[in-house]
Amino acid sequence: MVFRRLSVSLVSVLKPMILLGGRHWSLSCLFWIVLVAPAQALELRVMIKEGVTQVQVGSSTKAIVRDAAGQEVGELAAMNGYKAEDDGNSVALAQWRSHVLWIEPTGNGYVWIGKRWYRGRTQLVPTTKGLTAVNYVDLEQYLYSVLGAEMSADWPLEALKAQAVAARTYALYKRSTTANSVFDVGDTTTWQVYKGLESEASSTQEAVQATAGQVMTYDGKVILAVFHAASGGHTENVEDIWTDNAPYLRGVVDYDMGSPGYEWTKHFSRSQLSKRISGVGNVISMTPERTTPQGRVITMMVKGDRTTRRVSGPDLRSALGLKSTLFVVNPTGDGFEIHGRGYGHGLGLSQWGARNLAAQGVNYQQILSHYYSHATLSQFQ
């Protein structure tokens, strides 16, 4: 894959001073001006259903059904639901059986998979887990949906553009590093959320089209452009969260003040907490053992009336249903109060930070350069 470095005019944006929430801050861009041709279409394989015994499929227009060899074996009538079933080493759909079946709408139609409409076409594949339904969709059209699922479609356009570049970069990174023989990515938060036509909007289409083919790169390769809702004031260095050392995932000041996840509190009675943290008996105290420089919990010592146990921050977050691992625990009369900040892992692009910056006139190039340090905005060919 070939990349070309992109830029905008730097006359007025090299070091903008932005007044946000009563604070001034400086932000610099390091881009170069290059004119490039639009990117060619690239088809992404998105897993919609995996390991099921059956799935409902259909098409908004007449659809061609093809077998594993790509030969046309029949047609599906428009606006009719059909049940595809796992048949051992093959897929059964109406009167057809094949190791692989394709559903390809005619006339720019849409496919129905499970409970939603999608652009592109459908591949049905039997695997060791069961039947898998994969949506083959143009990368740029895939992003129409991802933007609306990951970020509110009525947010400022520059924030949506920043999310478009991040999501495109993330999808290509996953496609090149962790894809398997059946699909490149899934449709949940394990990858990035994709809901087909349901989460598209004119604003998400505009943001994708305005940034067509643009990705963030480092040393000539697409980066792992992770993102999260809000960091609680400061993002993290990746090595403090994961076992990685990406030079473009550096902790930076975040501008997510006022977001729903910026600050939060949860209360647990002693019995509630003891039920959620197993193996220690009745919880007596919780003391941070290791934290990141920003205060995210890496490990916590949980003392009970039976024993003391070391619990990881992510495990505690999952067990207690917390928004992030950036929290402190305070005892109360009848239990514990957990006071935290941020929503998500705190790495890379902060979505609420991007929203607030865009609302103050910061463009998407500047937003991306702030949250992905040392990375370059590029065009893939």
The number of domains: 2
- The termini sit apart by 6 Å
The neighbouring-strand order within the major sheet is: 4-15-14-11-6-7
Query: Stretches where pLDDT falls below 50 for ≥5 residues?
Result: 8-39
Q: Strand count, sense and closure of the main sheet?
A: 6 strands, antiparallel
Strand content: 25-35%
Indicate the percent of residues in helices: 10-25%
Q: Label the overall shape.
A: globular
Count of alpha/pi helices: 8
Structural class by sheet pairing and helices: alpha+beta
Provide the gyration radius in Å.
Answer: 24 Å
What does the average pLDDT come to? 90
Tell how many strands the DSSP assignment holds.
26
Structure explained in plain terms:
Helix content is 20%, strand content 34%. With 381 residues, the protein is of the alpha+beta class. The protein has two domains: 1-236 and 360-381, no CATH class; 264-340, no CATH class. It has a six-stranded antiparallel sheet with strand order 4-15-14-11-6-7. A six-stranded antiparallel sheet has the order 10-9-8-5-12-13, with no helix packed on it. Strands 1-26-16-17 form a four-stranded antiparallel sheet. Helix 1 packs across helix 3 and helix 2 (157-177) packs across helix 3 (202-210). The radius of gyration is 24 Å and the shape is globular.
